Amino acid sequence: MTDRTQQRRSSDHDDQDEFRNDLLALLPHMRAFARGLCGRPEQADDLVQETVMRAWTARDSFSPGTSMKAWTFTIMRNHFLNDLRKNRRQTQLDPEVAETTLVARATQEEGVHMSDLQRALDKLPDERREALLLVGAGGFSYEEAASICGVPIGTMKSRVARGRAQLHTILEPAGESVAYSPA
Known about the structure:
By secondary structure, the protein is mainly α. The protein folds into 2 domains: about 1-105, Rna Polymerase Sigma Factor, Chain: A, CATH 1.10.1740; about 110-183, Orthogonal Bundle (Arc Repressor Mutant, subunit A), CATH 1.10.10. Helix content is about 70%, strand content about 0%. It is built from 9 helices and no strands. The chain has helices at about 5-25, 25-40, 40-55, 70-85, 95-100, 115-125, 125-135, 140-150, 155-170. The protein is elongated, with a radius of gyration of 20 Å. The relative contact order is 0.09.
């Protein structure tokens, strides 16, 4: 084996290690985005796993110097949307889940819980929920989020603004007015 071949193999190994470390560092962000998209922790974990596998398989198509976070979120979003389209006509009802969802929980006078926020997010149209998750929770700029979703920046800004307004309406207690100032 020549020195040149040995150097190339060492460089490839270093690149794979760097890619792997960068991908692992994104796991918490991917989990948060996936939970927002899916609403169910088990399904979100499956989505993250599939995204990581697809990203690893396609690692040669990643352009160093670009945002790996945006790249992986695009992979995740596309896989999620493909699954939605594929499963659109299928309905599965788990009897245990149905039993727990049909039970009314006691109302308590507390602030908004994460579960309340998740339920409110679930009521939003997919495009608005996705925009809020990317810009609000994911920390992407409007430009990055628009690129991930493949829409113009104005469309992304509109989806975020409308999503925030709709969330405010859903979460606002009946008869009370809560001050709202868009970010």
